[in-house]
Structure formats: structure tokens, C-alpha cells
Amino acid sequence: MDMDGNVVKVLKGIDGSPLISTSSHDLICVANYSYSYANAQVIDPASGKVLMDCPKQQRTEVCTFFCSGRSAPSLTYKVVKVDDGSACKVFTLGEDTGWRVSEPPKTSISYMENSPVTVNSVMYFLETQHRRGYTLHSFDIESETWKKTISGSRKPMGPDVCLAVLMAELNGALCMVQTERDHTPMTNNRCANIWILADLDMGTWIKAYTIPMDASTDYCRPLRVTHGGGKLIFCNTFYAERQEIRAYNLHTEACTSLCKLDRTMGRIALCNLQLDRLLSQPRFSVHRS
């Protein structure tokens, strides 16, 4: 779809649940979960072709989650599968014919919705530590090794209650988004605080944006800051029933609706269909769950 909600391209032959990994200049990876097996497909959004169909494996684990991205400097595209938070397997596009067993995480990673995400050839897996905040586990795609574990952005205390937390890639940076509710009497105000990872080695986070949310908002997913930094494009999900693409003006602090979806479509993300000569608007990809 374009930013007005018009269908630009339909990708067929895709069998999966929510869109799990995408880049505005790269490929799309879709996970397929069932009661008996789990696998993933890699799709080129420009041609609509399925470039890689990872072999299905019997799903005996309690939870399985996938992540994908390109390594640096080799630029090979890989899909990583983590089972039960303690077993790691890798599938390389154009090289592997099956899953390869890789180095396991240094500590078990508990499943958390909206995790993981790839930024600058590093995969990040998020888990909550209840009152202690959040922990991020990082996996280097090139060396296929697990790196240091860092703390996430602070967990709200006092009158602000964190309703949801997720990670996202925003203009080439890793960010954490916390949807929070203010428990001030007679109000149900909500907002989304967006934190940017400023220093990976030091684990330093900076609160970059605070966006007011509707009372029915489940969570907010940032998509892109426009050229010049004037607007923040994001997707709102309302009680898991509908979604809306909005633009937040960073100068006037006003939100404008760009596109409304009557039902939850899965994950929405920007992608590049390489149709710039025909279309001047940015596009976003939608995968039905």
C-alpha cells in the first residue's frame, strides 16, 4: 500500500503469520507458525518472488521466534531461529540447504511479543525483567556470535504504568517504545515514549520523542522520521482490532491520520518496491495474520 491506503502490489504464495523483519531497502521475512512446525520465507517485495523457503522443522519447543538481516561486510542475508530461548540455528540465503546449528545464547531468552529486530547487522532480542526493567541480547550476523547483554530503557515507576513495550528500527537506529498510562484521577491519558540507543557499549538510551496516544491504544510502532525531521510516521494498534498510520508533527505536536485499516493486519513496516520512477510516495508493507 501507499501512504493513502491504496494497494500498490499484492504478494502471493506467502503462507505465514505477522511480518517479522523488513528494511526500507531490503527483503521481507515472514514466519509461519503452526501447532506442529515452524519455518520462514524470504520475499523480494519488488518482484514478489519467494527467494528462500526455509525447511519446515517439527515444532516441539514451547516457543520459536525468527529474525533476519544482512551481515557486514559480506552483505549475506541470513535468517536466525531461536528455539525455547536457548537453541540457535542459522539459514543463509543462496548458500544453505538446511538449518545450521550455531552458538547458543549465553543466557536463555524468554519469548516476548514484537521481538526481535535487526539494526546495522546486529540482531536484538528483547525480554522483560519485571521490576528490574528490560534486557537486550545481541547477535552479530557476520560472525554468528552472541555479544554483550545490555539494559533497555528505564521501566516506568510511580503513577506511569507501562502497558506495552517493543523494539523497532528508526532511521538506522535501534529504539524502544513504551506505551504508558497516567494514573492521574479522572483521566486515562496515554503516551508513547520513544527511546534511542545512543551508545551500545555504555548501554546509554536517550528519550527522543513523546507522542500522545488515544485511550484505546495498545501500542505504537514508529516507522520513519521524514527528511528534515519534521514528522514522525508511526502505526497505532487499537485493542488488537484495528490499525492506523499517522504522522506526528514534531513542531506543532499535532497528529494527522494517513491511512486506516479496519482490522489488525499483522506487522506494518516501510519497504522499498523500487518503483520510485512511477510513484513519488513512500510505501509500507502489510501482511495479513
From TrEMBL:
Residues 20-255 form the F-box associated beta-propeller type domain. It comes from the Eukaryota. PANTHER family: BNAA05G37150D PROTEIN-RELATED (PTHR31111), F-BOX ASSOCIATED DOMAIN-CONTAINING PROTEIN (PTHR31111:SF136). This is F-box associated beta-propeller type 3 domain-containing protein.
